[in-house]
């Protein structure tokens, strides 16, 4: 349902189905069954679920970084309003926490994953910081810039533009680190180690 709504979704070939608590005789072979009731009422036998319920189930089912990425994509695509999310009675601590922390600052699920990764080691990241007329996906401290390249990055013209911007920022005293989708999703320890080394060298300091 998240994919049908156009939200960012992690790779998952499993089929997720929301069912009533009373559906004990349902054959769940090959399915991921979600038995908890979300905050929005659903018409019995409905084949689609409300976006609030979709977020409710992702909060329980996915890894926290992936779930937060789905929530932030719902805000970014205007499927939900962040202030209204905070007013919902979620009845689940993880969902309540996501409603408080989800924001519009991440342009993609990858950026959300990166920020969560940095939080896990106590590193604060400012998002969408504009310097020299160009946005940085993240800024650590005063001088360590982060750019996250998505799966489809780069066409030649985009690549030239980014290299030009990176060079100008280097001349202004910034260090720019670029990570791609594969590193963020599959090599998080490598990303953490790179950031830790950069900070140990003081590259984040003015």
Sequence-ordered SSE layout with sheet pairings:
Blueprint: E1 15-18, E2 31-34, H1 51-61, H2 64-76, H3 82-87, H4 93-101, H5 109-119, E3 126-131, E4 134-140, E5 144-149, H6 156-171, E6 175-180, H7 181-186, H8 188-200
Parallel strand pairs: 1-2, 5-6
Antiparallel strand pairs: 3-4, 4-5
Helix pairs in contact: 1-2, 2-4, 2-5
Number of domains: 2
Largest sheet: 4 strands, mixed
Order of helices and strands: EEHHHHHEEEHEHH
- Count up the helices: 8
Placed side by side, the strands forming the largest sheet appear as 3-4-5-6
Question: Rg to the nearest angstrom?
Answer: 20 Å
Oligomeric state of the chains present here? single chain
Question: What is the count of β-strands?
Answer: 6
Q: What is this structure, in a nutshell?
A:
The protein is of the alpha/beta class and 206 residues long. It is built from eight helices and six strands. The chain folds into two domains: 15-101, no CATH class; 109-200, Endonuclease, Chain A (3-Layer(aba) Sandwich), CATH 3.40.960.
Structure description:
The chain has helices at residues 51-61, 64-76, 82-87, 93-101, 109-119, 156-171, 181-186, 188-200; strands at 15-18, 31-34, 126-131, 134-140, 144-149, 175-180. By secondary structure, the chain is α/β, with parallel strands linked by helices. It has two domains: 15-101, no CATH class; 109-200, Endonuclease, Chain A (3-Layer(aba) Sandwich). Helix 1 runs antiparallel to helix 2 (64-76) and helix 2 (64-76) packs across helix 5. The model has no long low-confidence stretch (mean pLDDT 88).
């Amino acid at each position: 349902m998240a994919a049908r709504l156009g939200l960012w979704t992690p790779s998952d070939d499993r089929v997720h189905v929301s069912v009533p608590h009373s559906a004990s005789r349902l054959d769940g072979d090959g399915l991921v069954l979600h038995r908890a009731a979300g905050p929005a009422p659903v018409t019995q036998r409905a084949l689609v679920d409300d976006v609030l319920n979709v977020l409710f189930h992702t909060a329980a089912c996915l890894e926290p970084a992936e779930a937060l990425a789905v929530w932030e994509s719902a805000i970014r695509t205007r499927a939900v309003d962040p202030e209204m999310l905070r007013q919902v009675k979620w009845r689940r601590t993880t969902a309540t926490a996501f409603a408080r922390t989800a924001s519009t600052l991440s342009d993609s699920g990858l950026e959300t994953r990166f920020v969560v990764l940095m939080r896990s080691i106590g590193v604060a990241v400012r998002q969408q910081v504009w310097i020299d007329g160009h946005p940085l996906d993240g800024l650590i401290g005063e001088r360590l810039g982060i750019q996250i390249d998505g799966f489809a990055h780069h066409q030649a013209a985009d690549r030239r533009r980014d290299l030009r911007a990176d060079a100008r920022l280097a001349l202004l005293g910034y260090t720019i680190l670029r990570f791609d989708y594969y590193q963020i999703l599959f090599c998080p320890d490598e990303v953490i180690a790179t950031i830790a080394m950069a900070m140990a060298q003081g590259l984040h300091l003015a």
